[in-house]
Structures are given as C-alpha cells and as structure tokens.
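Structure in, sequence out. Go:
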C-alpha cells in the first residue's frame, strides 16, 4: 500500500512536470527558446513543448506592425526653427526573430537616432515653404535610410510619414499675417473692379436716360408744333385769321397752365401774371421778336451781296 502511494505521488509530479513544459504561442507572436541560456529555437503560433527545467522561454516577440512617433526639432535653409513629427511603421521579420532579439536591445532608440540623423540632414537644405511641399520627400529619405540600417537587425520598415510640421509660434503668426494681407489685397482688387464696373454702368445708364429724355422732349415739341399748326388751320376755316388764332391759343394755354398749377397739391408757390392782358402781352412780345428777327435777316441778305461785289 505504501509503494502504491509513492508511485501515485511520483506519477502526479511527473504529470505536473510534463504539463509545465507545454505552452501556447498566440497568433502574430514568436517565442524564443533557450537551453541553459543558449538560443535553441523560435516557436510560432500554436501549442508548443519545451523540456522542463532545461529549456526556458527567453522572450515573446510580437510580429504585428508597430508605430513609433519621433519629434525632431531642426532649422531650415531660411533660418526658421521647426518641429517635425515623423511616424515610423515597422515590423519584425518572421524569419529574423533571432536578429531582432539578440542583435538589437533597444530598437526604438536605434530608429529614433536614424530619424534624427536623416531629418537634420535633409531639412536644412530646404526653405520653410519647401518643407511643407516636400514632406513626402523627407519621409522617403527617412524610410530609405532606415530600411538599409534596420534590415540587418531583423526589422522591416513598412512606411514613414511626416505627420506634422510645426514652425515657431512667431513664424506662424507672421505667415498668417502674410496670408491675410494677400487675401485683403485680392479682396480690394475685386472691390475696385466692382466699383469701376458700377460707375461705368451707371454712366452708361445716365447717358441712355439723357438720350431718351432728349428724344422725348423733341418728340413732345414736335407734337406741340403739329397741334398748334392744326389748331390754326381749324380756326382759319371758321374765319379767324392767323394772328387772332395765335392770340386765342396763347390765352387758352395760359389759363390751362394756371389751372394745372392750381390742381397740384404739392406745387411750390409760383407767381405768374394772370390778368386778361397777360396773354395779349405775351403774344405781342412774340410777334415783336419774330418781326425783329425777320428784319435782321433781311438786312443781312442786303449787305452780303454788296460785300461780294467789292
């Protein structure tokens, strides 16, 4: 009975020992096995076994893509200090897990050093505006340098990105003022063009208005003259001579004008002669003017031939 119990205990410890050698490796992970401190093998995803008390798990190395953000401060060609944020995406090469673990102890520090070296070599060759335009060229240069350097250490550089460019605060303020001034200049040009077009169009409209107004006045006077001519003809037919007809028309228009002024409520005060002799006086003045004009014309005709004879 005592021997049976001992065998049970031995079997139990043996089972525990065997089970302690069983381990699981997750997907996208590699496990490094050492035997008495010496590298033995790399185990991939799945259930694995190691010799208990002889072999041990030295490290678990992730095979997923990782990202490291590096902020570099440097100076441009036009003496502007600027901070660049460079994001490096890298991964451990599956068949170079040994190199990644044993050759390089601090991969982040190594990658950071290379990023600093490349950025501080490339950016001082560019002006600030070119840094914004050619940020992809900077990223390509960083990747090319890292790719060659890190491949021997078991790391593959997937992609590098310049994700942020941050100049000094005073420089950014100056750039914003320049941008605002340029935009105000363009806005002023557009406003000036708009004002010039408005003035030109207004002048064209006024010119057209004056032309139409003059045409309207000419048409109005033409129709008045035609109406007066017809009125004189009608009065002549009933036995009224031209002078009497003209006097009658002047008197009639005189009183029509007074009536029109009286009907307007907003008309300013106008003083006009309204005596019965007013129409006769205006007609006499008109006749006198016409007579004087005719006499001057006749006199000019008489003097003109005599000058030619001389």
């Amino acid at each position: 009975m005592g021997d049976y119990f001992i065998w049970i205990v031995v079997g139990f410890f043996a089972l525990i020992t065997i089970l302690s050698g069983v381990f699981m490796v997750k997907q996208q992970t590699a496990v490094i096995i050492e035997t008495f401190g010496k590298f033995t093998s790399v185990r991939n995803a799945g259930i694995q076994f190691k010799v208990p008390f002889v072999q041990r798990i030295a490290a678990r190395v992730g095979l997923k893509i990782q990202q490291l953000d590096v902020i570099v401060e440097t100076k441009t060609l036009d003496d502007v200090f600027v901070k660049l944020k460079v994001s490096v995406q890298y991964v451990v090469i599956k068949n170079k897990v040994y190199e990644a673990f044993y050759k390089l102890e601090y991969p982040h520090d190594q990658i950071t050093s290379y990023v600093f070296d490349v950025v501080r070599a490339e950016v001082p060759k560019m002006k600030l505006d070119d840094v914004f335009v050619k940020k992809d060229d900077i990223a390509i240069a960083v990747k090319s340098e890292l790719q060659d350097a890190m491949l021997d250490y078991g790391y593959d550089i997937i992609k590098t990105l310049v994700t942020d460019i941050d100049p000094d605060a005073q420089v950014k303020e100056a750039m914003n003022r320049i941008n605002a001034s340029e935009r105000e200049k363009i806005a002023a040009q557009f406003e000036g063009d708009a004002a010039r077009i408005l003035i030109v169009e207004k002048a064209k409209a006024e010119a057209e208005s004056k032309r139409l107004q003059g045409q309207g006045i000419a048409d109005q006077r033409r129709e008045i003259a035609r109406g007066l001519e017809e009125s004189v003809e009608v009065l002549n037919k009933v036995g009224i001579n031209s002078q009497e007809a003209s006097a009658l028309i002047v008197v009639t228009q005189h009183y029509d004008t007074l009536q029109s002024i009286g009907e307007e409520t907003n008309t300013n005060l106008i003083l006009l002669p309204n005596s019965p002799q007013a129409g006769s006086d205006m007609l006499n003045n008109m006749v006198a003017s016409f007579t004087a004009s005719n006499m001057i014309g006749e006199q000019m005709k008489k003097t003109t031939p005599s000058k030619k004879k001389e």
